[in-house]
Structures are given as structure tokens and as C-alpha cells.
Amino acid sequence: MELTASEKTILTAIGANDGISRKELAKATGLSPGSVTLLTKALLQGGYIVEGERIGAGLGRKEVLLHANPDKFYFLGIDIGGYRVRMAVSDNRFAILHEAEFLIADVDEDAPKEAWVVASAVRLMEDIGMDTSAIAAIGIGVTGIVDAGRSLVLSIPNAKHWERLDLPQAFRQSFRCPVYVEEGGRTMLLAEKFMGKAKDEADYIVVHSAYSVVAGMMIGGQTLRGARNAGGLLGHITADPNGTRCTCGNYGCLENIVTYPMLEHEYKNRDGQYPSLIEAYRLNDKTAIDVCIEAGQAFGIALSNVVNLFNPVSIYLGGPMFDDFPILFEEMKRTITLRANRFATLGLQLERSSHNHRQGLYGALILAKHELLFPS
Ligand SMILES: [Zn+2]
């Protein structure tokens, strides 16, 4: 069934507010109660939604809550980072049925990367005894550069030899469904919008940092892409003009300062006494604390510039680094407050993102569903 614009509006609202009454739907979408009744009837018949529990007490009319039908579609989500690849199969409500993860370092350097990704996905399906034909759409998020047509992965700076990958083409043999490719920061935006805290926000930013810095920016309700889909590359803005060479070719990128390997490297450079930065930090070692404070400042300066440029309502930050080094987070926050324009920081929320290490994975699953049902 081809969905009408109003049906898409209803489905989007149900997706964002799982378990919503028709009355609330009318309020959320601005559609009349009569239209909502007709539209939900068609969507129930099409199997897109299901009725759930009844709410309302006493003698008043009971309201039935509506949910997305979990079994209408199954999706495959793939999150390709510079260090790790995560894959999952979910139902239509993004409940994860099965997931797997792989290290980029374990993939044979000379092996064709597209074929490896497809074979891993096929294995994942075999693990749960599901035929590949059950998948309605595949969403792929990549920590790298995706071409303007959003089909070709041009480069993953942290993963050598992962270049010019045509993943939709590679999947065509084993999966007969559409494949959507997107830059990872932008899939993280989707996760925060449709399964997180940014439901009603038009101006927000998601930043994750672990082995690379990934960022997505939503400005005025539009995903920031730039002319060639390379806009918003926060990790590769210059943060230290005297810094070392980055995997992207530039020198002194933010990513050269605030990722795990670089923090560790800096700690060693300063003759840190403990075997690892994490251990030293836990023991309150001064060198470790200094390294983290300086990294927090660099991160804060970069984000101050972003705040001044785009004036977001919220910045959602994620990745285990902020848990391991709380002082880095605090220093980053302090630097933003100190350096960004006071009118741009008015009411600015700095919060943790909703899904931790699964932010990109959920984003990829949501990408699959949204591009399938509501093509952009
Ligand atoms: Zn770089």
C-alpha cells in the first residue's frame, strides 16, 4: 500500500510516541479527530499499526493506545566506525532481535570490504534462522565521507583500505531490499530525534567520541550536509596548529587530541608512570588529569565555535570516554560556557546522548525504516 502524506504523518507520530491515543494523535499532528479515525483505520488494515492497552478510569470513555506493528517490517542496521563494525536485526519498533560486532583490525587488509560486510550480515541472519528476504530495508551509517548521492562510501579516515565502497551494489546479490547509506553522525541525529531526547528539537547536535569524533548537526530542522555531503566534520577541524599528522592528511585535527589512542599517546609522551591513562586517571595521577583537562579544553573550544555558528538548543554527547574521564567532560562544559557567545549559550543544554555505544546502530536501523517509508 502506498502511504499518503497524512498516513506518513500519523506513522511518524506513532513512531515518536509509542503507545499514543487517537486523541493525542490529533493533538500531536494537528489533524482533525475525524481524519485521525479514518487514517488509523487504514493503517490498522494495512498492518502498519496495532491497538494496545486501554487507558482511562471510571465511567469516562476508554482510549485505546496505538503502537507500530512490531512484525510489519524487519530491518538490518550496520554501523561502520573506524575501529568497530556493529550490526543488528530489529523489528519494526526497533527492538533488537540479534546483534554482532567486529573489530576493523580483524578484517583482512586485502580482502574486498564490501564482500566482507555482506558475508557478515548473511551470517548474522543465519544465526537467528531468518531468511535474508525477511529484511525490508538496510540502513548503513559510516564514520567517514559518503558521496552526495549517498550510495558510495568515499573514505573512512581511520580504516585503511576502506575506500570507494559501493555497499548497495554489494548487497544486491544476497538481500533483495533497498540499502541506504548515511554518514554516522547523521544517523546518530536520527536516533536522538526518533528514539531519544530531541523529539521536539529543530536545532541540536550529537557528538560521539571514542576512537574518532563523530558529529551530526540538525539546523532549522534540516540535517547539515553542505554542498558535497562533507559538512559538519567536527573531528577534522584544526585544534592544534602544531599538532601531529591525522589519518585524514591534515595536521592537528581535533581527533588527534581527544580520542582514546591520542590521549594515551599524550600520556606516554609526558612520561606517565602508569601502564595506561585510564588506570592513572583512576588513581588521581596529576599527569593523567592534566592530559584530560587539556583535551577537554580543546573539545570545548571546538564546540564553542559550533555553538557560535549554529546556536543549537542542545548538544548530546556520547561515548565511553566521558564515563572514563569525567573531568574531560566537565572541562569541556566549562570551556563552552566560558568561550561561546553568551547569547548563543543562553538555555543551551549539554546532555548525554540517549543510546551510548548503540547510538549509531539505532540510527542505522531508523535510517532503514525512514528512508523506506518516508524517503527524503
Ligand atoms: Zn583529520
From TrEMBL:
InterPro entries per the UniProt record, alphabetical? ATPase_NBD (IPR043129), ROK (IPR000600), WH-like_DNA-bd_sf (IPR036388), WH_DNA-bd_sf (IPR036390)
Q: Gene3D superfamilies from the entry?
A: 3.30.420.40, Winged helix-like DNA-binding domain superfamily/Winged helix DNA-binding domain
Keyword Protein transport attributed: no
Q: Which Pfam families match?
A: HTH_24, ROK
Q: Does the keyword Lyase apply?
A: no
Q: Which keywords, in A-to-Z order, does the entry hold?
A: Carbohydrate metabolism, Xylose metabolism
Any one of the GO BP annotations: D-xylose metabolic process
Q: What family is it from?
A: Belongs to the ROK (NagC/XylR) family.
Q: What does this protein do?
A: Transcriptional repressor of xylose-utilizing enzymes.
Q: What is this protein called?
A: ROK family transcriptional regulator
The scientific name of the source species is Paenibacillus lycopersici
